[in-house]
Design brief:
six-stranded mixed β-sheet; 493 residues; transposition; DNA-binding; alpha+beta; Transposase, IS605 OrfB family, central region; 21% strand
Length: 493
């Protein structure tokens, strides 16, 4: 049976447990910084970077791998590395860290080669890993191999026991309870911190869902702000479905407002600190206040990210279940929303909103859930999709843009089509054009016009409360529409 790798992220509770893990991760981050600095110095002295894992690991051992005598500056960093290694007390995790750093360097050199061949495919010149101040590191992850954890079963359930330190006198562990019915093969585990939060990331293998369903339909998905997902299907029995994005837009606006307040307070305190420094006065109290505000700002960002990640998981699970239940074999996803931060020509306010919503995360979550069902997800660009008539020929050349568009957005959410002289939902038109950019959907004109003119819009609180079967009924066309809306209300209540 085919299997796929998935990640289960478990948030750690308990102040003492979080502090133990955070201290270890900060020590690892410092160790990585020292390795990066040492490698940079080595390149300055000898003209090349170290890409040998054994040599890097020998820097902290008593038996040097390379007979070359290090310079005095190198010896200082070697001593710092050894002291840091003694503080970490876990050889397995240090080996993994060195391996990952070498991998990052090799990836950098490959990127440089690709950049020289085709600079236009990059937003900027690739740069190697660099050391960062510990206070400026928003997050850090340490991967752990099978030698650093084990699974134990107790009366209350199944647990994963992760080794933090391998000190002979006193070994330190962290024990985390696994979810009920979690019977998958665990391949590795990682520990990470984001702001003041600590997580255990468990990488496991999950078998693909092998359902014997006839899948013949195609779907196009357009991503947006007020309408987060607009889904057009070639299934004649389904209306176009729009999933609201206003709730996510609202949480972003609240987050931006609160973050701006905290940043204003931080700036005011920093100005006071600068003034006191000029007069050589004590700034200890102000520094403490500043650190507390920075911590609050990081916790605010962590809360917002957790909320969005959880909400996206719920949305994409509903969408994937819906597409599987209604017999879809391939889904075309427009990736225009992910390009807003890469120079897309939108208004300043609109572009800022797009950047604040992590559409790439949404697409990735949807893609892997679709793949579990054997549905093929395909990302495509969105040229000629938002303003193009659904009845125009998309294969015409770019020189004939005026003939190609044959329509205009007359007001928010509405599209006036000059070919049929009809008014359609603008996002429904966009999702249909995304679909027909890559495929040739066979839909009769009457059904197409109904799908474009009368989509079903579902709010998030409604979406999360209804079952997949109810959502399929809700998306039914024409005669079932009144009955389905009653079903929606009954299921929500």
């Amino acid at each position: 049976m085919d299997k796929i790798k998935r990640i289960l992220s478990i948030r750690i509770s308990g102040k003492q447990r979080r502090e133990r893990i955070s201290n270890l991760l900060y020590s690892l981050a410092q160790f990585r910084n020292l390795l990066i600095i040492f490698n940079k110095r080595y390149q300055e002295n000898y003209g090349k970077r170290i890409l040998n894992e054994s040599y890097l690991y020998s820097l902290i051992s008593d038996k040097p791998y390379n007979p070359r005598k290090p310079k005095e500056d190198d010896e200082n960093y070697q001593e710092k590395l050894k002291k840091n290694e003694e503080k970490i007390k876990n050889n397995y995790i240090i080996q993994t860290l060195i391996r990952q750093l070498i991998k990052d360097y090799k990836s950098f050199f490959k990127s440089i080669q690709r950049y020289k061949q085709n600079p236009s495919s990059f937003n900027a010149v690739p740069r190697p890993s660099k050391a960062k101040k510990l206070k400026d590191i928003p997050s850090f992850t340490a991967e752990r191999n099978v030698n650093t954890f084990k699974i134990i079963e107790e009366k209350k359930g199944k647990y994963i026991l992760i080794t933090l330190t391998n000190d002979k006198k006193e070994k330190q562990y962290i024990k985390v309870k696994l979810p009920k019915n979690f019977n998958y093969d665990i391949k590795s585990a990682g520990i990470k911190f984001i702001a003041s939060n600590v997580y255990i990331d468990i990488v496991y293998e999950k078998p693909l869902i092998n359902e014997k369903k006839e899948k013949t339909h195609l779907a196009g998905i357009d991503l947006g702000l007020d309408n987060l997902i607009t889904l057009f299907s070639t299934n004649k029995g389904l209306k176009t479905v729009i999933i609201s994005g206003k709730e996510i837009k609202s949480i972003n606006q609240w987050y931006n407002k609160e973050k701006a307040k905290l940043q204003s307070q931080i700036d005011n305190i920093q100005n006071q600190i600068n003034e006191l420094k000029k007069e050589n006065l004590d700034i200890t109290t102000l520094e403490q206040e500043k650190r507390m505000l920075i911590k609050k700002q990081k916790e605010l960002s962590a809360y917002r990210n957790r909320w969005i990640t959880d909400t996206f998981h719920k949305i994409t699970r509903k969408v994937a279940d819906f597409l599987n239940e209604t017999g879809h074999k391939e889904v075309y996803i427009g990736k225009g929303a992910t390009e807003s931060k890469n120079g897309i020509n939108l208004s300043t306010k609109t572009n800022q909103n797009f950047v604040n919503i992590p559409f790439r995360k949404l697409i990735n979550q949807l893609k892997y859930k679709l793949e579990e069902y054997g549905i093929k997800p395909t990302e495509i660009t969105e040229e000629f999709t938002s303003k193009t008539s659904p009845f125009a020929d998309l294969n015409k050349l770019k020189e004939k843009l005026k003939q190609l568009y044959k329509g205009i957005r007359i007001k928010r959410g509405l599209y006036k089509d000059y070919v049929t002289n009809k008014v359609f939902n603008a996002d429904a038109v966009g999702s249909y054009n995304i679909l027909r950019k890559e495929a040739k959907p066979l839909i009769d004109e009457k059904t197409l016009m109904d799908k474009l003119a009368r989509p079903i819009k579902v709010k998030l609180n409604q979406l999360f409360k209804v079952t997949c079967e109810s959502l399929v009924e809700i998306a039914g066309r024409r005669t079932n529409r009144v009955h389905d809306r009653r079903t929606l209300v009954n299921n929500v209540l």
